[in-house]
Amino acid sequence: MRIDSHQHFWKFSPKRDAWITENMKVLRNDFMPNHLQPILTDNNVDACVAVQAAQSSTETSFLLDLAEVFNFIPAVVGWVDLQSDEAEQKLEWMATFQKLKGFRHIVQAEPDGFMDGEAFRRGIAALGKHNYTYDILIAPNQMPEALRLVNAFSDQRFVIDHMAKPLVNTGELEPWGSMMKELAQNPNVYCKVSGLTTEADWSNWQPEQFSPYLDVVFDAYGAKRLMYGSDWPVCLLVGKYAEGKTILEKYCEGMEQTDKDFVFGNTAAEFYGI
């Protein structure tokens, strides 16, 4: 099974989706499963993981409702207020939804120290009781904080979204590369090869720009802890769905088929319990 480990659905709302600014007009539309399904078929992708794009319980319910209707969505990464005093009770109630596999918070928009907070850590500790995963969405400057988090929870399954957003546009590899290797020292930490093209110059990127960053994550994690993700529809800011997938396919051309199978499906299936 080929799985896209990271994409989003939404019915565009200017107020809720304020992060979609004027220079992102292509995203100011509805993006629903019926829009994505033919794209997945054209790109030989069988299934996808729907990831939250808004921080509300309504968002989680919205994604779960879609997953019930569309069988090609076998997994949902939702949102829950992990800092709430009632987080553990909410997680217990949510455990009844079979396609709800994990949670994410848009930490990249939070102030320094967010992941060090006592309330957030308490919420992370509660995830393991229900075998939930956690997607870490951060910028490079937050990587030391993420390292402290994963070191503190060695039994919790984490995945780094978008390779922690390396500075592809400026060509910088450090300190991102060293931090990525440190994060990978934890066997419970995985990484999504996703969202790379939007970290380059949107109008003037070249496929070869991404190879040094892919070298780092493949060396650090190996195929069995890496998973392909499109970041659709956000990827449309810089090109078509197929372009991002092709970059990774060409990079993997010389690898064993077993490794390719992990990157393009098996890793996501194991991590999310698909």
> Can you tell me the CATH topology?
TIM Barrel
- Radius of gyration over C-alpha positions, nearest whole angstrom: 17 Å
CATH class descriptor: Alpha Beta
- The figure for the number of domains is 1
N- and C-termini, Cα separation: 10 Å
Largest sheet: 8 strands, parallel
Q: What is the average of the pLDDT values?
A: 96
The CATH homologous superfamily corresponds to: Metal-dependent hydrolases
Question: What is the percentage of strand-forming residues?
Answer: 5-15%
DSSP E strands, number: 8
Order of helices and strands: EHEHEHEHEHEHEHEHH
Structural class, from helix and strand content? alpha/beta
Uncertain runs with pLDDT below 50, 5 residues or more? none
**Amount of helix:** 25-40%
What does this structure look like?
The protein is α/β, with parallel strands linked by helices and 274 residues long. The protein has a single domain (3-272), classed as TIM Barrel (Alpha-Beta Barrel). Helix content is 36%, strand content 13%. The protein is built from 9 helices and 8 strands. The protein has an 8-stranded parallel β-sheet. Strand 4, helix 4 and strand 5 (133-136) form a beta-alpha-beta unit. Helix 5 (143-152) packs parallel to helix 6 and helix 6 packs parallel to helix 7 (211-221).
